[in-house]
Design a protein that fits this description.
Layout: H1 15-24, H2 29-33, E1 34-37, E2 40-44, H3 48-59, H4 64-78, E3 89-96, E4 101-107, H5 149-160, H6 170-178, E5 180-181, H7 184-197, H8 201-207, E6 220-221, H9 224-236, H10 239-242, H11 245-256, H12 263-267, E7 272-274, E8 277-281, E9 284-288, H13 295-308, H14 321-334, H15 342-350, H16 363-371, H17 373-376, E10 388-394, E11 399-405, E12 417-418, E13 421-422, H18 431-435, E14 450-454, E15 457-466, H19 469-482, H20 487-492, E16 514-517, H21 523-531, E17 536-539, H22 541-547, E18 549-556, E19 566-571
Parallel strand pairs: 16-17
Antiparallel strand pairs: 1-2, 2-10, 3-4, 3-11, 4-7, 5-6, 8-9, 9-14, 10-11, 12-13, 14-15, 15-18, 18-19
């Protein structure tokens, strides 16, 4: 491994100041979070400082894996462990240029062996998402899970890294020690969630680091405990957080707060490498994460349906009402991971279609399902006509598409902090899924990074987060791969939003409305959508922002012999 100083003090003159200025400013997301040079290109969520740190790793000879790890580590630090966490999770697709292979890595949540009544885990406070469940009282420690972020990051680096593991932590440790300036966005997050941090002694210390009851824009927050934790992981490896002193403190903190964590739960954690899933669609081979990730069904089956419905012969969803209708229907049809809606299963079985899981991909199933759409979405009788991500391409053509998240609202609501790391509350959201697992098992993960290859060469890589991660991914992929539109066009278009009402199984498929931001579409467009048989339900701009997905995306020039020329697109979301 090559040793290099990646701390901001070693960056080229002006690079640090420029990145920090972008971090503090309200500028276009694309301008703030895309960076490129002869060493490669990076598109990443939220933190221009983190993007600059990753670009320095590329310039120092690092691989796409080195840069992606540096960006992710720095993102969490500059965002104060809010929307992403060192105790969170990670999903990765990696194209290895030397072999032409795509690799899948899962670093999702593990449950606790001692948690045997998951349905009774208290519900988390998802207040900013007003459509969501209401919080319930109970032990906050039960809301935590074993996160795979650091273990998976280390596994990626061991396999594809060139720089020394410890050096990737340079920017993150420097900003933890030197301080992070509170931006307008982070000030708003403190306003929304400070009451949860204030529940614990460690949380109060975190809030009071500036001498105020609650940090405001312009304050500088130093994170000395976090710097110590990161320094230990840099020198000892990820085992510090799964077997070492941090793991011991995690278990003690969670158990004191009523959780069932044990050292055995943490020590048993293993990230999972697997064969990615793929489909042939629109002249590309499109890859999605393999097991135990479940997102491949949603995205790949969605693309197969888009091809079966011949969306490549139409305009994009923001111009063509029929495309909007059909992409919304596709998203509703496939959302739910491995489970089809009962109404859809019944109809497909009546048509003689095999609906077992291993048959729900590819052309045959897609054509049969698409042929059933008119019946499936026919109005019932008498019814009236409702995280952070990183994509990196290095100069050798390696591509990393990485998403890391806490799967919940900023900081979660536990108020628990261990070694400067706030602990999120995902178990307070996934009680139903956890109840279906053997205690201690891996929670299925539906974060779907995607890579598209043509003739064995990558042309597109995406990494999504957010409530509408699947609809926004399908929108971008269909617009780019099928309809010849740029990612810039897709980013500028109104979002394709998920609809949590669509999970209400008392509604027929035809009664599940499309959610649209108020004022985003012309009245004539929406009337055409309704006339095509899809109900529409406008929402306020604030609600739409909470529902919107977030996508880091890079389109890659086919000639990888020269430095990649990339068009990076980021669609900003206010909430993960």
């Amino acid at each position: 491994m090559t040793r290099i100083d990646l701390s901001p003090a070693a960056w080229p003159a002006g690079a640090r100041q420029a990145a920090e200025a972008l971090e503090a400013a309200r500028v276009s997301p694309t301008a703030a979070r895309i960076a490129s040079g002869r060493a490669g290109v990076i598109s990443a969520m939220v933190s221009p400082i983190a993007v600059e740190a990753g670009l320095q790793a590329l310039s120092a000879g690092g691989s796409a894996a080195d840069a992606a790890a540096t960006v992710a580590l720095t993102q969490i630090t500059t965002l104060l462990g809010s929307v992403v966490s060192f105790a969170g999770i990670l999903t990765l697709l990696y194209f290895e240029a030397a072999t032409g292979e795509v690799h899948s890595l899962d670093g999702a949540w593990n449950s606790y062996r001692g948690e045997t009544d998951a349905k009774s885990i208290p519900a988390s406070d998802l207040g900013p998402l007003s459509f969501a469940q209401k919080p319930t009282a109970g032990a906050d420690g039960r809301k935590t899970l074993v996160g795979g972020f650091m273990a998976a990051l280390e596994a990626m680096h061991r396999r594809f890294g060139r720089l020394a593991w410890a050096d990737l932590f340079g920017p993150a440790i420097a900003y933890a020690e030197g301080g992070v300036t509170v931006s307008e966005a982070i000030e708003g997050w403190f306003g929304l969630r400070a009451r949860h941090l204030a529940k614990t002694k460690a949380g109060v210390a975190f809030l009071g680091g500036t001498g105020r009851a609650r940090p405001v824009r312009g304050d500088v927050i130093r994170q000395p405990d976090l710097a110590g934790t990161l320094g230990a992981v840099a020198s000892q490896g990820a085992r510090h957080m799964y077997e070492g002193a941090w793991a011991e403190a995690f278990v003690a903190t969670v158990r004191e707060a009523g959780g069932a964590a044990t050292l055995e739960d943490l020590a048993a954690y293993e990230p999972v490498w697997s064969q990615p899933e793929s489909t042939e669609v629109f002249g590309h081979t499109v890859f999605a994460p393999g097991a135990p990730n479940t997102s491949d069904y949603v995205t790949l089956c969605g693309l197969d349906l888009a091809e079966a419905l011949q969306l490549d012969r139409r305009g994009p969803c923001w111009d063509d009402p029929l495309t909007f209708r059909d992409l919304t229907r596709i998203s509703q049809f496939v959302t739910g991971g491995p489970y089809l809606r009962p109404q859809a299963i019944e109809l497909l079985l009546d048509a003689g279609v095999d609906v077992t899981m291993n048959q729900r991909r590819g052309t045959a199933f897609a054509k049969a399902a698409a042929a059933s759409f008119d019946k499936l979405y026919a109005p019932p009788p008498g019814a009236p006509r409702h995280s952070c991500s990183v994509v990196v391409v290095d100069a050798d053509g390696n591509v990393a598409a990485l998403t890391h998240t806490i799967n919940t609202v900023v900081w979660g609501d536990t108020g628990l902090i261990v070694g400067g790391v706030p602990l999120p509350d995902p178990a307070g959201i996934f009680q139903g899924q956890l109840a279906m697992l053997t205690p201690g098992a891996r929670l299925p993960n539906d974060i779907c990074c995607v890579m598209a290859l043509r003739d064995g060469r990558p042309t597109l890589a995406t990494a999504p987060i957010g409530s509408s991660l699947h609809p926004e991914t399908l929108k971008a992929l269909v617009a780019t791969l099928a309809q010849g539109r740029s990612q810039a066009d897709a980013a500028a278009a109104p979002p394709l939003l998920g609809n949590f009402d669509a999970h209400d199984l008392t509604l027929s498929m035809a009664e599940r409305p499309a959610i649209v931001p108020e004022g985003a579409y012309a009245d004539a467009f929406l009337e055409a959508v309704r006339a095509a048989g899809l109900p529409v339900k406008p929402q306020s701009a604030q609600q739409a922002l909470a529902l919107r997905g977030t996508l880091a995306c890079v389109s890659i020039d086919a000639d990888m012999a020269s430095a990649p020329e990339a068009e990076g697109v980021m669609v900003y979301a206010g909430s993960v």
